[in-house]
Protein: FAD-dependent oxidoreductase
Organism: Aliisedimentitalea scapharcae
Amino acid sequence: MSYSGLSLLGHAITGNRHWPAIIAAPDMRATYDIVIVGGGGHGLATAYYLADNHGLSNIAVVEAGWIGGGNTARNTTIVRSDYLLNSSFELKNFALGLWADLSRDLNFNLMYEPRGYVDLAHSDGELEHFTLRANAMRLGGADASILTGDALQARVPELDLSNGKRFPVSGALVQEAGGVVRHDAVAWGFARKASKAGIHILQNCPVTGFDIVKGRLNAVETTRGRISCKQAMISVAGASSHVAGLAGVDLPLNSINVQAFVTEPVKPALDAVVNYNAGLSYVSQTDKGEFVLGGATDGYGSFARRGSFERIEDVLARAMQMFPFLSRLRVMRHWSGTADIPMDGNAIMGPTPIQGLMINGGWGYAGFKATPAVGHQMAELLATGKTPALIAPFALDRFTSGTEQDDAGLGPYPWLH
Ligand SMILES: Cc1cc2nc3c(=O)[nH]c(=O)nc-3n(C[C@H](O)[C@H](O)[C@H](O)COP(=O)(O)OP(=O)(O)OC[C@H]3O[C@@H](n4cnc5c(N)ncnc54)[C@H](O)[C@@H]3O)c2cc1C
């Protein structure tokens, strides 16, 4: 069914008792053309675009847990394209364009809100680097401006710009098209449309192995049995190294914990996403009124989703440097997710050494913003067999050919974000 004001009214009249499930629960087939391993935003977006752009539907999305239980629904919901490296910028900027129309395309309210992303610089040198980045963004067709002093204070009135801080603010790079998107709605919206197109979404069905004969993928093994397929794509975020390892593919990744927090809700007080760069702490306010806070990775490898106290203290202390009023709020929830981070800090997308097996991973704590672009591009690769130009720089073989895509602030230096 299509969501509209009329359908809302119709269901209200009948006591909201007949809303259909948004994702079908079909029996698993023995064979599909394509199996997507991982039902996060990336895997589901790929399924949606395979159906919508390429007319393919003999596809299964195989998810170990439930839809929207992975990093897609653990992130801090920030979308932006303020990257300097061409390859990073172009992919994220393409995604930003897609976010703008996606709610309409999916007939599902993703709550994309371009509130503006305000990236604070803490020295003149850093501000100069931000100016370079802003100019590069403008040349690439994105909006970007540099604000200092009164102009910055007017843009974010709640920001404490007073003197005497340990890390004073010199100015900020502002991207007004940046903002937030409701993260779990992204998983549900893509899943609903893919399911409607006839794609099978199989939840609670972990992939346990790959049947590979003479270097070619034959089938995917799951806890519910074997699925023969022509192609498969691994898109499992924090589990990338483990799942690729089941196929004998060794990925150059570190798996590191990233934490996030929300405070108790209060009235609207902050109309931007603000990022503090002296150590990393970012803050936005949800429509419910809670402040969402995030920061850098824990700095050591772990699959545990607990997180260190040191990082909790660090993120909250820096957030209070920006917005001292936050000290009066209680943190209501705290969680973390496993970020899969390659040493050049950029994603890995494309073929693996196994024929028929593709990988999309290595997104660390920066992949949510790219979700629709990843789905769009990986769908094109799976449907046509040709790597689209936008994702060609992110091929796995860049680590052997020496064409790494170094994004400062990720990889070995996550604190330089
Ligand atoms: C705390 C935190 C904050 C973040 N903040 C931001 C942000 O503000 N902006 C941003 O752009 N990015 C952010 N990120 C990163 C972003 O969340 C991820 O890069 C992105 O969601 C990855 O999408 P995905 O679909 O690949 O991952 P997921 O949603 O994790 O999907 C992968 C799925 O694979 C499944 N899976 C795992 N193993 C198997 C298996 N064996 N078989 C089948 N399925 C399996 C998992 O259950 C999971 O559902 C953040 C991440 C974290 C942890």
Residues 33 and 229 are 5 Å apart (CA to CA).
